[in-house]
Amino acid sequence: MEYSYLRSISFVLMCAAVLGGPWFFGAWETIWFWPFVVALFGALGGYALRLLNKKQMRPVSLPASAVWALGFYGAFLAYAALRVLTAGVVMDAERSFLLFVTPALIFVMVLHFFTSGQLRLLQWMSMVSLSGIAAYGILNHIFAGSSHVLWMPGYPGYFLAEHRATGTYYCPNHFSGVMEILFGLALAVLLTPGVRPRMRLGAFVSSALAVMAILMSKSRGGEVTLALVFFVGVILGTRHWPARARWGLRGSLLLFGVLAILAVLSFGRPYVERFREFSRWESVIGSSRAQMALGAIRAWRSAPVFGIGPGMHQNVWAHFAASPDGSRAAARWPKYPNNHFHSYEVHSDWLQLGEEYGWVGLVLFAGAMALGAIVLFKEWNAPRNQDSSATVLGTLLAGLAMAVHSLFDFNLQMPGTVWLLAFVVALPWAVCFRQYGPGGRDREPESSAGPSC
């Protein structure tokens, strides 16, 4: 088989996960999760066959900070693999581990394997796909009240009691999460100078769809994240504009953002009421989400350094979820029992990471993410990479959105969202760190003894 066919087949298989995962309920259910995982490992097979046939990968030149970021993530994966071997429930541990391994596979293949043309194609296909998800979610909510998620019935608590849009996800918060990625990518294109008018128009449509979808989802975390990404994007995205235009654009956009928030607070009663539910501390601490978090903290304290084990939260939640003020001997119920909700996830990705992997895992993972963000920020600010400014800034804004919203929800437990985000993060690394031949074209590697880096 020709090497080009290997790359094309691998590209199609990776596209299936990156583009298809968010469409099929975020690949949350087992019936969708495993086929996409198999597709990603099939894509990796094409990559491996190319290496076995002694074909070089596309060479990259990484700065020291990038090497440190990859080193931290590699150390986290090695640590996570060891923790999987000692997990109490193997199937849950494997799924948790794959949520960290499969993004790494996407990252490596994007960095080394695919052509620039393929990556550009997937970049714009992902924008179109996310815009399609937004349009579907909006129309499904307007005409059907989000009573169904694709062909499946939705959860009545969301579409009947709260009238919230869910898009292709069962949960409106997860629908909001993937829309925040779209908004960050589109905002970066809108604010980058020198972008072609056609691209800017497409980005405007995508950003408008993303904002409408987030508002219709009525996600509190999504709305806070949307505002934060907008203000950070305006400050960063106008940095490369001429001084006079920069300050005028910043002032007008920031004023627009403030007026939009005031309009929502004044006329958006359904949105404001959801925030007013937590107007008193008793309402906050008594909410199921707060009790999930407190239960996770109690579980974390039982094994602070190494955690309770990958994927083990849903297996031990009942033991830790009830508040500790109950007493069997005194026949006293706890103030906050655990008999009215079930917690598959903590509703905080960062807290669940610490609970399941301990301080060791949290430090390694957070260190890799922080170093990676620093690497991209330096590259975005470097004059030599101004042509890739929109790509890098879009990744920074999308990453910011996920980092913030993951404090309050579990978007990164949704495989489809994770795979999409992995491509979004890997793309600027390929753009900035690949070595190109004459004319800026991909250098087609010759046969050699092995990969060049």
Summarize the structure in words.
This protein is mostly helical and 453 residues long. The protein has one domain. The protein is built from 17 helices and two strands. The chain has a two-stranded antiparallel ribbon. Helix 9 (220-237) runs antiparallel to helix 10 and helix 9 (220-237) runs antiparallel to helix 16.
Please provide a brief summary of the model.
With 453 residues, the protein is mainly alpha-helical. The chain has helices at residues 3-23, 30-52, 64-85, 90-112, 116-144, 156-161, 172-191, 197-217, 220-237, 243-267, 269-276, 281-286, 288-302, 313-320, 349-381, 389-405, 415-433; strands at 148-149, 152-153.
